[in-house]
Amino acid sequence: SQQGEEDPQALSIQEGENATMNCSYKTSINNLQWYRQNSGRGLVHLILIRSNEREKHSGRLRVTLDTSKKSSSLLITASRAADTASYFCATVRSLNNNAGNMLTFGGGTRLMVKP
Amino acid sequence: EPEVTQTPSHQVTQMGQEVILRCVPISNHLYFYWYRQILGQKVEFLVSFYNNEISEKSEIFDDQFSVERPDGSNFTLKIRSTKLEDSAMYFCASILRERMNTEAFFGQGTRLTVV
Question: Looking at the predicted structure, is the pLDDT value of residue A28 above 90?
Fold first, then answer.
């Protein structure tokens, strides 16, 4: 089964610095999504990149996708203390019989941004 | 903004008891999911549900688990005889249109503690 794996597992930076998190996966995908989770809370969708896209921006977020290497990266620029959270990539593939998609999450990167 | 709501936010139950976790997906969404996250670990897929039936389930989703959408709005996960290892956060998610590469909307989760 496919699996998104993030690295690093933990990242600690100073406010204002950029944070880069990587995700690798094993099988073909429809799209790849990044989610954020504050401690003990739900998953919040950040950005989606389709399999035919290479880069996407949303505010301070920049996502890249390299399907030949089966990898993606999430860059948060000019980080803030409020960006402290866990970040997960989720690979998305179609289920049979038009029964929808399945998201498979990686282990996540715990980001701490120090003020 | 529409959201997925889950109740209760926290449930404590005795080992061997049955629990029902409730979710109200976003009203015009078509695809529904349950995921779980054991403390500090990755988010694991349990089951997907479409057109009033299970479309895919993981190895975790054994005979102790069942899902229902009894009234067209609620989406429930039942664990018949809870075990200590069922302690986790359980997340419900829904998606509007699979083929349009749309995001999944997650609820805030139910923290299940089996004692």
Answer: no
A51 vs B: CB within 8 A: no
Mean pLDDT, to the nearest integer, of A76-84? 97
Check B48 against A108: CB less than 8 A apart: no
Best mutation target among A3, A37, A43 (most B Cβ atoms within 10 Å) is A43
Q: Tokens 């029964």 belong to which residue? A: A99
> What is the signed CA dihedral for A106, B89, B8, A82, rounded to 10 degrees?
-60
Q: Tell me whether residues B101 and A31 touch, CB distance under 8 A.
A: yes
Please indicate whether, in this complex, the C-beta atoms of A100 and B95 are within 8 angstroms of each other.
Answer: yes
> Distance from CA of residue A91 to its chain's centroid?
9
Distance CA B68, CA A56 (A): 37
Nearest CA in chain A to B48: A102
Other beta carbons within 10 angstroms of residue A5's beta carbon come to 17
Own/partner pairs, A63-66, CB within 8 angstroms, 24+ separation: A63/A32, A63/A34, A65/A32
pLDDT by residue for chain B (115 residues), tens only, comes to 779 999 999 999 999 999 999 999 998 888 999 999 998 888 999 999 988 899 999 999 999 999 999 887 899 999 999 999 999 999 999 988 755 567 889 999 999 999 9
